[in-house]
Design brief:
Elements: E1 3-6, E2 9-13, H1 22-28, H2 32-39, E3 42-49, E4 52-60, E5 66-74, H3 83-97, E6 102-108, H4 112-120, E7 124-129, H5 132-136, E8 142-143, E9 146-147, E10 151-157
Length: 158
């Protein structure tokens, strides 16, 4: 289902025959082995500008009522232009169309700008998965001088 957001930008589901855009996914999740654990059971949506993929988000459904954004990323040179918000809006619409009632997203305790971004989009913190990044990633993650240890989970009713 292709959806034009603004002129020249389109968000669409990635076809099963298309190459997974790992270079973008790795911007948000730095361990491909972790990505590979959820990618096959998920739906991948890409954001294109003039037929070039510049963004991606991944939806995973743990149950019939809930869907989680497992990964969302925008190519660095296009960040700060509202594309991430467009992708969140699209994820909410896709999820509503599939009759999900709750949208989840998780981010690291050190991801200060992402925490602010999600809360501005109406998400609320509901859980902390202690030591998630320590236990599941082979290399330490440091953002803005802060060790990324815990997964902050946010939720939004659809």
């Amino acid at each position: 289902m292709a959806k034009t957001i603004i002129s020249n930008i389109e968000i669409r589901k990635l076809g099963g025959y298309e190459i997974i855009p790992y270079e973008l996914l790795l911007l948000a999740d730095p361990d491909q082995q972790v990505i590979d654990k959820y990618i096959d059971d998920s739906e991948i949506y890409v954001t294109e500008l003039e037929n070039k993929i510049i963004g991606v988000y991944v939806l995973y459904s743990p149950d019939q009522h809930t869907v989680e954004i497992k990964n969302i990323a925008v190519e660095e040179k296009y960040q700060g232009r509202g594309i991430g918000k467009m992708m969140i809006d699209d994820a909410m619409q896709v999820s509503k169309n599939k009759n999900y009632t709750t949208l989840l997203v998780g981010t690291g305790n050190s991801s200060i700008s992402q925490l602010a971004f999600y809360q501005k989009q109406g998400f609320e913190i509901f859980d902390i998965k202690k030591n998630f990044f320590v236990d599941n990633y082979s290399e330490p993650i440091i953002e803005d001088g802060i060790a990324c240890k815990h997964m902050i989970m946010l939720t939004k009713k659809l």
